[in-house]
Amino acid sequence: MTKYPKLLEPLDLGFTTLKNRVLMGSMHTMLEDIPGGHEKLAAFYRERAKGQVGLIVTGGIAPSKEGMALPFGEPLDTKEKAEEHKIVTSAVHEEGGKICMQILHVGRYGYTENNVSASDTKAPISPFPARGLTGEEVEKTIEDYVNCAKMAQYANYDGVEIMGSEGYLINQFIVKKVNKRTDKWGGSYENRIQFPLEIIRRTREAVGKNFIIIYRLSMLDLVKDGSTWEEAVQLAKEVEKAGATIINTGIGWHEARIPTIGTVVPKGGFAWVTKRMMGEVNIPLIATNRINMPDVAENILEEGCADMVSMARPFLADPELVLKAMENRSQEINTCIACNQACLDHTFTMQVCSCIVNPRACHETELNHLPTTNKKKIAVVGAGPAGLEFSTTAAKRGHEVHLFEAEPQIGGQFNMAKEIPGKEEYAQTIRYYGEMLKKYGVQVNLNTKATLETLSNTNYDEIILATGVSPRKIKIEGSEHPKVLNYADVLYRKKPVGKRVAILGAGGIGFDMAEYLAHDMSHESVSLNVADYMKEWGVDMTYQHEGALAEAAQPLPSPREIYLLKRSSGKHGKDLGKTTGWIHRSSLAMKKVNLIGGAKYLKVDDEGLHIEVDEQVQVIPVDNVVVCAGQEPLRAMFEELKASGKSIHLIGGANIAAQLDAKLAIKEAAELATSI
Question: Which residues belong to any copy of the NADH:flavin oxidoreductase/NADH oxidase N-terminal domain (predicted)?
């Protein structure tokens, strides 16, 4: 008997039935835009369809040149282009799946000189201004959507999703924040929503009854001058009348200053919004954002928050998520940790999308874990992310793997990451690897420091050093003072930290340390409590204000006075993730962390930390100084083993320690384990 009866229940849409209540939400992978990309997309979606997801929605496809996000790629506007999509739809249908194509016109969010919008405007997240469409151009744009839907139908898609949220073109017409028009497409709310309604009406007329039309409706704008709740309900009812099959939930504009999908967001944190809409319309509603495991999804459905759930990034992490739920193997799911490092950060820097915990994502045609024809005995030293990925992948392929770890548990640096408020999900990756070690029979030796003698005298065919990194020490007077700690002392060894603290180093580890120390550990992390999270970031759950923005955010105060210092000048956190850096900076600003750049560290003594900034010497009277100034690779035994003639490989931090980068470590390990 399944543990997820609601999640796995079919959904009857009248003219067709979805096999379960799981939507694979839209993600732009960049495969849509590269030569040979459709073949790779076909392999990508085939695996997800084979994994039994109920309905797939593709990444956004522009209906016209003006609607494109980037100055390259192609809109879907001709049968010739539609032919290229048939390899994708065929792959999904061959596995018994269903797939809809998202139609996305980015409007003022484009990175081109052709940006258009409801009115003359400029988005804060694009360097290019947008001009307002003329009345004739509005009509032409509606027809572009309709034509795009017809081409999707010609390409054998089961339906389309019309993207009406997240601040894209349709959303720009709906809200008075952007729409300043005085013609029939502007002014009153009734006028402003005619643009999406005409698109839906004319699309339904063009594609007939037996074609899925999902409308992605912004139920929570989270921007000033956004829609009211009453307006969102009014639009939902009109969308149903216009012919939509399903309404999907859109949360927040891309320019909103409230995190909506980052790992800091509580799991299922925005399902309450969809629940508010339940009963207002008679067509199915989809809840979305930070739903990453079957139990989270089942609870949302059980509590009547939605008829379906959308998971996007979780299908990057594990294409078999639904299948594993069906087979009561949810403990084997490779969980999305919502880090954005290899998915959204890649997309927004024009790289092909992937996944930090699953480097095969979007690389299914090139990174395959095929059974070995030459079984080897392999020693792996270090059970951090790199060692775990190599061990499980190599063992899965049929090698005999012996894993040595000096600490009493697996996980390496992830054991520290999971301690950071907002990064609790990193524990899920450790859990996943633990299950895989058991499943594939890896011989795990904990509390065991691999020695040169052990590795040299045992007949290992290959030795993998995944020994990781150690915190770099600072070379200043007083560096051995009792006040001085490193990040491992605090996060791993749990050494106490006083009420006033200076953090040296403002990279990713320094920011994490500031986040950790800025939280009162007697309170549950707001990432684990929806109401606390919404209060901290300024979301009005009563929806008394436009866009559901509270009058002010109400963060919990920091229990410490914190100084985050760096030697270089310029903005703190400029090298943090493209799509998450602003979250970390905003969080520390709310906690009133003091940011000091261009600092020369002079010494540490009983008085505190002595620094020089702009040729002025000052003392920061702190109880502790926490060093987060990078790390050194741990490469013990490498030269000796190499000299002995052993086949030896360095991976992860032991190989490259310049940036503590789990994405690179896991990818490197996966590639080596695939080729060895």
Answer: 6-331
Q: What is the rounded distance in angstroms from the CA atom of residue 155 to the CA atom of residue 147? A: 12
Give the pLDDT band (50/70/90) at residue 660. low
Domain 377-470+633-675 has CATH 3.40.50.720: yes
- Give me the active site residues, please: 168
Cα angle vertex 125, ends 291, 255, to 5°?
Answer: 40
- pLDDT of res. 348: 83
Looking at beta carbons, which pairs linking 534-538 to residues 24 or more positions away fall under 8 Å? 534/269, 536/590, 537/258, 537/259, 538/258
Residue 487 contacts residue 628 (beta carbons within 8 Å): yes
**Domain boundaries along the sequence of the chain:** 11-328, 377-470+633-675, 473-519+558-629
Condensed to tens digits (0 to 9), the pLDDT of residues 263-294 reads: 999 999 999 999 999 999 999 999 999 999 99
Q: What is the pLDDT of residues 228-256, one digit of tens each?
A: 999 999 999 999 999 999 999 999 999 99
Strand arrangement of the beta sheet that strand 599-605 belongs to = 599-605, 608-613, 616-620
**CB neighbour burial string for 136-147, b if at least 16 within 10 angstroms, e if fewer:** eebeebbbbbbb
Tokens representing residue 217 in the block: 């409706």
Copy the structure tokens of residue 157.
């898609």
Map residue 72 onto helix, strand or coil: coil
**Dist. CA 43–CA 60, nearest whole Å:** 18
The answer to whether residue 657 scores a pLDDT higher than 70 is: no
| pLDDT for 659 beyond 60 | no
DSSP classification of residue 472: P
Task: Count CB atoms within 10 A of the CB of residue 474.
Answer: 17
Which CATH architecture does the domain made up of 473-519+558-629 adopt?
A: 3-Layer(bba) Sandwich (3.50)
Side chain identity at 206, as an amino acid letter? A
- The gap from C-alpha 627 to its chain's centroid, in whole angstroms, comes to 28
Whether the model pTM is above 0.85: yes
Predicted confidence (pLDDT) per residue in 320-352, tens digit: 999 999 999 999 999 999 999 999 989 888 899
What are the structure tokens assigned to 404, written together?
């040595």
CATH topology of domain 11-328: TIM Barrel (3.20.20)
